[in-house]
Amino acid sequence: MLLPALTDAAVADAVADKTALRFPDGELTYRELAARARAVAHGLAGRRLVAVWARPTLDTCVTVVGALLAGVPVVPLNPRIGERELRHVLEDSAPELVVDGEPPSGAEVPLPEPDAEAPALVIYTSGTTGPPKGVVLPRRALAANLDALAAAWAWTGDDVVVHGLPLFHVHGLCLGVLGPLRRGGTVRHLGSFTVEAAAEALAGDGTVLFGVPTMYHRLAQAPEHAEAFGKARLLVSGSAALPAAVHERISALTGQRVVERYGMTETLIITSVRADGDRRPGAVGTALDGTAVRVVGEPGEIGEVEVRGPGLFTEYLNRPDATREAFRDGWFRTGDLAVLEPDGYLRIVGRRATDLIKSGGYKIGAGEIENALLEHPDVAEVAVVGEPDEDLGERVVAWVVADGREPTLEELADHVAGLLAPHKRPRALVLVDSLPRNDLGKVLKRELRR
C-alpha cells in the first residue's frame, strides 16, 4: 500500500493526532487528512484521470491524496503554465475533471487498494526538446523509491520535512509531500522559499530540508541564519547540480555538508549520498537499493547514464514511439552525462543535448567548467555552453553573472586552465545581469544565444 498511515488501521491509529501537513494556510492531523481525503476519494472514484492545479496549499495535497486513495491518476498542473503548454497538456491527457481550489467530495463508496502497477501520477516533462511528454508513474515506483530513500537517509516518521518546492514536480510532490506521508512524518511547506522562513522552521521542529541549488546559494549570502540550518539532521539538494563553491560555503557556515541526490521525472531518484556517507562536492552518491546504474562509455570517462529498477516510469502517455526510444535493452537512457568513480559514486557533468562540448577532439563536460568558474571570486553565477567553431568544432563559451567586479576572458581562461586542463578553458565570455531559469532553478541553456 502506498500511504499506510492513511489506509492501514493500525498505522493510522498510531499517528492519528500527529500533524501530517502544515502550510501557511493551515495544518491537518493524520485523522483530519484521512477524513478529508476519503471524502475526495468518494467524489473521484471511478474517474479515469483528473488534473489538479498544484498550488502550494492544503487543498492541493488533500485532492492528490484523495485521488490516490481512489486509485485515480493525477496530472499536477503548474500554476504558472503558459496558455499553449496548458492546452497541450489538457488535450494530451484529457482529464475528466480539473480541480482548482476546493476539493470535490461524494457519497461513500468502496475504495479497494489499487494494483501496484496502476498509474498514480502523470507528470509532464519540461518540454526542452519538443512538446512536454506525460510521464506515467505507477504506484509501485513511488513506493519503492520512497522506501529506498528512507533507507539511504535514515528517514523516519520522526522527521519533519521542510521545503518551499512547487507541487507540480517530482521533487516537491513525490519526495516533499508523499515521502513524509508514507513514513508517518510531517510536511512543513513554506508556501514559497525564503531563507528566513526556512530558518524559522528549522529552528523549531524541522529536521530535514529539501532544496535546490538556488536556495542554498541564497543561504550562503545570509550567514546570519546559518545557525538554524546547522541544527537540521539533513540538508538535501537536488533538481540541479550544487556548485562545489556553494557546497563548501554552506559547510563553513553551518557545519553541515549537503547531501546531494540525482534523479529525473522518469526514474524518480536514482542515486544519493547516504546519511552516513561521504558528502563530497560535485558527487551525487551511489545507486539506491534495488536500482542499477551504469555509465555507457570508457571506464573513468564521460558517458551517458542508464538506469533500471523498480522506480522507473511505465510509459510516456500516448507516445509509444518515445517510450521505445527511451530504452536500450531494458535500460532507460537518461540523456545525462556523468563519470562513474571507482567507489561507485556518480559525478554528473551535464545533459547530452546541451552540456557535452566536443572541442579540438576532446569531450568536455560543461558542469566541470562551471564548478571551476564558480571558484573565481568575481563569478556569482555561470552557465557554460558550446558554440560552433570552424577550427575546434565547438568552442567553450561562458555566460557569467559577475560578483561585483567584471572579470575578463583572459582571467577566467587562466583560472580554468590552472584548475582543470588548458583545452577546457573558455574561449568566449558573455557578461549578463541574470541567467534564464525554470521554476526549480535549472538554467535554460537553450535560451542562451549570442
TrEMBL record:
Keywords linked to the UniProt accession: Ligase
GO molecular function, one term: medium-chain fatty acid-CoA ligase activity
Domain AMP-binding enzyme C-terminal: 368-442
One biological process term in Gene Ontology: fatty acid metabolic process
Domain of life of the organism encoding this protein: Bacteria
UniProt keyword Glycoprotein, yes or no: no
Occurrences of domain AMP-dependent synthetase/ligase (ranges): 12-99, 109-317
Residue stretches spanning the membrane: none
Similarity field: Belongs to the ATP-dependent AMP-binding enzyme family.
Protein name, UniProt field: AMP-dependent synthetase and ligase
